[in-house]
Structure formats: C-alpha cells, structure tokens
Amino acid sequence: MPSAFWKGYLKLSLVTCAVELRPATSDSERVRFHTLNEKTGNRVVSRYVDEQSQKPVRDADQAKGFEKAEGGYILLEDEDLEAVALESTRTIDIDRFVDQDSIGWIWYDKPHFLSPADKVGAEAFAVIREAMTRANVSGLARLVMYRRERAVLLEPRDKGIVLWTLRYGDEVRDKKDYFATIDAARPDKKTLTMVRNLIKQKTQDWNEDLLTDPVQKNLKRMIAAKKKKSKPSAQEKRQTTAPKGGNVIDIMEALRKSLKAEQKK
To answer: Is 198 exposed, middle or buried (0-12, 13-18, 19+ CB in 10 A)?
Structure first.
C-alpha cells in the first residue's frame, strides 16, 4: 500500500479521529519522457528567467503577482496568501451534509481514500462512516490540498470513506451553451430500433479490464524493442478517415452491416 501523502484529523462536531489520505488513482504506469540535449544526451533543465533581461531569477527573488486589466501587476506577499487561507490545514471539519445522489457528476474532480490512522481513532471513524451510510448522505468540508484550498465531498464506501475534491462554481460551464443548438428532432423509429439492437448485442458486465490504453502499451513495446537494439514490429495504423455519407440510407446500411457483424461474433 502506498504511503499517505496527507495526515490529519476528521472532525464532526466534538467527535475527532486521526486519519490518512491516499490518492485513489495512479499514473505511475504511464510512460514518461525527459527532454534531452540531442547533441550531448544530457537532460535539459528549466529555470525562471526575467522576461526583459533574460537573466535567471533566484528563488528568493520570485513573487506572485496578479495582472491588472490596465497593465502592471499587484504583488502578493506570503503573508497576504496566508491571511486568506484556512485556519487549519490538518483538519477535515465536516460542516454540512447533502443527499448522496444530489451532486451532479460534473462537480467531481479527484478521488482519494480516507482511512483511520491508528486503532485509537478507528471506532470514531467507523461511527461517522456508518451513520453517513445509514442516512444516505455525504459530508462537505474544506481542505488545503495540492497547494490550494478545495471543497471536498466525503462518501462512505465499504469500510472506508472516499474523499472527492470538488470543482468550484466558476470552474463548471453551463451545458446549455453547448447543447442548445443541437437539433431536437425525434429519430426514425426503425433506425432507433436497429441502434437499440446493436447496443444490446454490445452490452456486457462492467470490468476494469475493458479500459486499456493501447498507446501506452505500444510505447512500452517500442521502448523494450529499442533496449534490445532491434526494431519493433510494425503496428497496424488505426483507420482515421471519416466515413462517407451522412443521410438516412447510409445509416440504415451501416446498421445492417454492423448487426450482421455482431451476430457472427
């Protein structure tokens, strides 16, 4: 099990327990590249430079600034940023609850696993989790994570709690701005029936093995081949040409062929 990247306390009114937080997802298996100097083979390092003088800027001389509409910047000191931060960065204080089904998918950001940090706090943790489960609610709180204050949602799951970072209101766009121009005409019944049959034939039980990344797989195969100083076998390129046509007759013909192909499988 990976080590906890955050340790603190879960608090509900006067009930408090020590907890640990771990990311629920990982990209450690993703192929990563370094930028190299092709002539020397050495890694290229990045550094901050002054926009005008092009001279490197020391860490001690770097400051955060907010750009003004009329030009120029408003400089913010570390003390200014600390003044607007949460009083405690080590306590998840649940201040309200919402029905579990009341939050739309678009507000969810990143999932994390929340678990008790020791046996002493395990009982208090279990009581909070079980009470939330029976009430079918999730808890809302705020927490400083990844150098930013975030709204978080706590969902009871199995023996633990899943903590989701949530997006703020100004980060979510209104779907009406994108869906309003879509034609709302009802589809042809015969075409709709054929599509439903195609969906039925392709439907299967969920399994995480259904989600694979062919690009990462091909990259790893190519890198392994280069390690052996041999050329990797050529991979079939995906067909990226757009299908021709766009009328109802073409759709019906495509559906007939698709259904026949699925029946053969």
So the answer is: middle
Residues 156 and 198 in one domain: no
Angle, vertex CA 176, rays to CA 245 and CA 189, nearest 5 = 45
Are 13 and 128 part of one and the same domain? yes
Tokens of 198: 């195609």
Phi, psi for residue 131 in degrees, rounded to 5:
-65, -40
Per-residue pLDDT, 261: 80
At 73-115, the pLDDT tens digits run: 888 887 776 666 655 578 999 999 999 989 999 999 999 999 9
Q: What is the CATH number of the domain that holds 159?
A: 2.40.290.10
CA separation for the pair 145, 160 (Å, rounded): 20
Tokens of 85: 């931060």
pLDDT for residue 247 is more than 60: no
3-state secondary structure of 53: coil
Say which amino acid occupies 48: Y
3-state secondary structure 71-139: CCEEEECHHHHHHCCCCCCCEEECCEEEECCCCCHHHEEEEEEEEECCHHHHHHHHHHHHHHHHHCEEE
Domain membership flag for residue 176? no
Mean pLDDT of the chain: 83
